[in-house]
Structure prediction request, 620 residues.
Amino acid sequence: MRVYSKYRKRWSIALAVFAVSAGLAGLMPTKSAAEPITDESLKSIVGPAAADIAAKGDPGAEMTGTVSDIIVADPKVGLTLSDLVNQVGQNRIAVNFVWTLVCGFLVMFMQAGFAAVETGLCRAKNANHTMMMNFMVYGLGLFAYWVFGFALQMGGVAPVSNLGGLYPLNSEFTVNLFGKPWGLFGTKGFFLTGVTYDVGVLVMFLFQMVFMDTTTTIVTGSCAERWKFSAFCISTLLLGAFTYPLFGNWAWGCGWLSALGANFGLGHGYVDFAGSGVVHAVGGITALAVAMQLGPRIGKFNRDGTPNPIPGHDLTFVLLGCFVLAFGWFGFNPGSTLGASGNGALRIGSIAVNTMLAGCTGSFAALFYMWMRYGKPDSSMAGNGLLAGLVAITAPSGFVNPMAAAIIGFIAGVFVCLSVEFFDRVARVDDPVGAISVHGVNGLWGVLSVGLFADGRSNYGGSWNGVPGSVTGLFYGDGGQLVAQLIGVATLVGVVFAMSFVWNWLVGVFVGHRVSARVELAGLDIPEVGALAYPDFQLKSGGEFVGATSATSSPSLAK
Amino acid sequence: MRLLGAGLALGGWALAVAGLFITSSTLGRGIFAVMGIAVSLGGIFGVLNAYYLERAIWKRS
Prediction:
């Protein structure tokens, strides 16, 4: 009888919570003629006695998580309907906060993956310098984003219902052009002071900050083995404070790109679920702008312009880094729902599977491409293929089905091989880790793939970018979405490139980008950062097979 | 040349955006966007990269 009574109480609580939730959602009348929920009826629900738990413990979790755990506003009055409703609301936001924060922590750990990939693909004599750049982008980027970047990007993003509204972020600088409002940048949140000292805003800051840091770390790979550390520091500050946040605002912060749907009828405006464009293409295109100005490493090209392989020093580090990145991507894409409860956020499973599949097919495609073309499965290109697939699926991950994700990833895996060949042999832009191809080219492909493959089945609260309905690509009937994506690509290769080029040209004028030839030949570790990564190792080259191992600048590519 | 290259990159974007106001047809706007991307890429690879390749370190030694 006692057991029956205990379960009856638990069922009563569960039914009460369900009834309130369903009533709020409009699924049933709020007043039930049979059994209305009142403050009085709630008082009949009694939780387990503290003495019981104290005496027996609760190994079966039968007395934990009951009515006793609901916070009441006034202990003298006891549990009321208002308390219950507030608890339901707080639970939803709590789930979303925890989800977003944990995903942000995963994305933060991607810094370790990038550091491993980039350092492994560089020579041992530059390992400390490359690792230090990857280490310092975290702090430099974070500082720039805290001071300027976050406010410029997200200062006018409200409302974001999954994170409690974010109502303090309600100020977007907008100009009117031909009768249409164009959001250019946010104006609230500098230093996270004033009203932006808010629990929801700080969750958003953390999540967005780690995304920005991903962008800044892409550049260090392309510019490795010849970039002055001082120039790197200033360039990173500028990217984190201005270039990334401005494009981020236009795409994610209620800026003009996201309004292409509402203002011009182009689908749902520019759509970039987790940042193929905002994060990866911005990083890749900035990397191109800087690498072009830096010029190639000594020895990369012969006088006739043919490329030479410059193998990395640790392929095990590279592939381990790729795995770390693939793991972190489960924070990157599914976390971009900014929650797991409400507004269609239960799609997180679909997003995670899409992410897996695209990475898998990207890796396969690159592996088989290199195998068929050069006779060997190239390990570093298999790793870059994995990353290319992940980069490409980042924008469409929330809007496509698993089959489309696999196709997008496969195409990305081929693109990364073709692109590395293009930059090595045609453009002759030296990119030691292939970051321009992985992040720039496949970031753009990811943006376009939304406009092709979005299947119109997602539903994030009934609208996206203020346009009702689901994002739908060309293959499912909405050509306007592809045009919006094309304008996003035009903005990336036009505005973002020009902005990055000018910033870094100024850095070159005032600081100088490139180390001297003497420093470059000796290795940057001692001259630039004061210590060798491997002081006990004898760094040498030679031997029958040294130089025949593959890297992004694969020997096979030099044939 | 550097100014021209960066200017062309920016000009490509302006062309893509101008299409939004010049025509209301989706196809027309798409064509303007593609033309804009082509102009930007021309500025980046045709002008800027060519400028830097002329002065490349491997041509000097």
